[in-house]
Amino acid sequence: MFKRKLSILFSFFLLFLYSCAPHQKPKEISSLDHFIGNDFNWKELTGSDIFVSSRSSTSEEVMAKIYSSPSMQELQEAKDKMPESLALLTDNFLNDLYTDYEEMSEHQQMMLLENSHCDMKVLNKETDPKRFALIHQKLNKAFTYLRKTKGIRSGYAFVGNIAKANVGGQHGYIVNMATGELVEFPISSAWHGIGFQEDSGRTPVGYFIVYDKYSQPGWQSRTKTTAPQKMFWKLEGQSYIEEVLYIYRKSTKTEKAFICSNQFGLIGQNIGSEYVDLEATKYLRKNPDEFSFIDNSNSGVRQLYLHGTNREDQLGYELSGGCVRMSNINSFIIKEIVKKQKTLPVFLDASALHPPIKINLPGFDNTDLESIYNEQSIVIRTQNLLDSMTLNNKLYTKVLPPLANSIAYRMSKIENQSADVKISINVPFPESAMKYWLHMQDTSNYDHIPFQQHFGFKGEYYKDVLKRGQEHPFFRNYQYNELKTYFTGRLDDAKLRLEKDLTNAFSKYDIDTTGFYSMINIEEQTVIDPYFNDNNDSISGIEFLSISDERRRVMHYMGLLDTLASDYPENLDQWDHLNWLNAYTSLSNELPGSLPSGEIDYYDAILAQAYIYALGERELYEREIKAGKLLPVKGQNFQEHLVSKLGPEGALALMDEIGLWKLFQYSRSSENTSNMKITTVSRPKEEMIWGIHRLAEAYYSKYKWISNQYVLTSSVNGQAITMND
């Protein structure tokens, strides 16, 4: 209780090899001697002519907005100097962006217009002859290998210089393999440096291929791309999960590094039997005979990629977890090349362009690395995790048997086998318990608290279904002990079923099951929502409940209002928009739900005002983004931003006004599937309490799916597997 009060008080004051035989090194010649011709023949390379997507009609307003971005201006300037074929592919991306722009969220648009990077330079004999000649001289071995050894004389390739930033490295080059023209932009390779071992966190060098479609089964890097509509979306577990909050480093506690927008799987082509002449031997001061018979063939197993990143401010420095990062915009140019060519040759080397100089790396810590998927995650999201028939059909027939087969297959290929599986369930915090939140923070006894979801994930209201007597399992009234018993039983059942499926799979792959329980660890994992963990004196009763960020803000404002009413009651008299709460403060000592049914108590009133504040805060935040006035900060930071401009009373009064207006608009929108209405935003709040509750709960229901999931994470010997194993 003291911890909660302290937190709320603080918030209130803030308101204020070809073989192993001896080899001969290739003769040192300039890579410029290799390139002839003006451009290359797309039809010869890909079997089809170059194409340009027809541009859909785009308003001048949209184009003006896009080209107000410094990064897009840089891209346009670079496009004007590109080889014709690459400029046409860049146009494909721009056409898609014009089409998708209005489908992007305001947050995505803001990041594109204000925070995105391109930093692209076209290097040829006309644009920058000195830099053009320097890159060809320093990376000559890469160009020679691609053209002479691999016979790549048409199309585009990617060459990365992963030497440290202080010697001129950390740049990638799109190379026209017919003319030698280069497009240069910053990249970021591993902060651990160069290396080939699994779990080393190092970036390998040598020759790789990116495939548009990769058919090799098993645990391998896979190319995954998207339309601009999902620019700046996080990729995790091979799925796009949500927008990133930032595309610059904020804090690992706020948001860790992620793969974003597009990822291109690096499939290593050197297996240690071929001498690969590398500039990296000089950079690393290695004997070529020791270093040049490289094996990078495990790069797919290591889940290494070229990819867009949410650390665009760190590009140009060696700060990744092993992958090669690039800006999200540049990842779309690579996407268009891969889409056209079907493959992209890649060569990574390390060459010092100049003597070492002193530089300062941007803010960084060794936990700020994108995930390389040490675990496979299977997430089941369904409208109703209490619907046993539907869930059992999916879980027991479509998920657990192939998962068991994948684990057994992987274990049959290794010695000293061990596997770990964690199973967890989370369901959304019920609307019916929202007004009990203040009380729940101080008790672990929830026997009198109703747990019931009133709304589905699209705002559909379920009370009428209950009246017809056909109880929907997810939407009838439960006590928490019933939920806990049910979900604990579900986890136990899933564990037993997986053990059975694993036993059958072990038999299929002739794995001895004598030491089954020493090899297999299946853990029923309770994932406690960090919000509940931080804000409750006891968490023993809400292990399976989770809540979205948006609904957490409602709880924040409940605590704030409770603190005002108990410690600063004079503000309820002085602040006009809160006068109406005075009628309910005398009921604050009554337990929530203790009044006769249908009567409004103190907690109903506090919750209604908290909904209004949270809705107003969100709407004001979105308005400032639209106006281009605000960096992407949310929640408490945005509240402090408003207080700094308007003062505590002014900020809360504005959130009240805008929140009521937002609720009024929502009541008349097509999103309001239950067709509830507020007739005016000027009517006293006490006459609208139940309407505010129902409308706000319907509005916030669209965020509940984030907290509704059945998750299985699995690994073999600490390494990820896939269902294809």
From TrEMBL:
Annotated metabolic or biological route of this protein: Cell wall biogenesis; peptidoglycan biosynthesis
Residue positions of the active site: H307, C323
Pfam annotation, one family: YkuD
Domain L,D-TPase catalytic intervals: 161-347
Segment forming the signal sequence: 1-21
GO terms of molecular function: carboxypeptidase activity; transferase activity
Positions of transmembrane segments: none
UniProt keyword list: Cell shape, Cell wall biogenesis/degradation, Peptidoglycan synthesis, Signal, Transferase
Biological processes per GO annotation: cell wall organization; peptidoglycan biosynthetic process; regulation of cell shape
Similarity remark: Belongs to the YkuD family.
The name this protein goes by in its record: L,D-TPase catalytic domain-containing protein
Annotated organism of origin: Flammeovirga pacifica
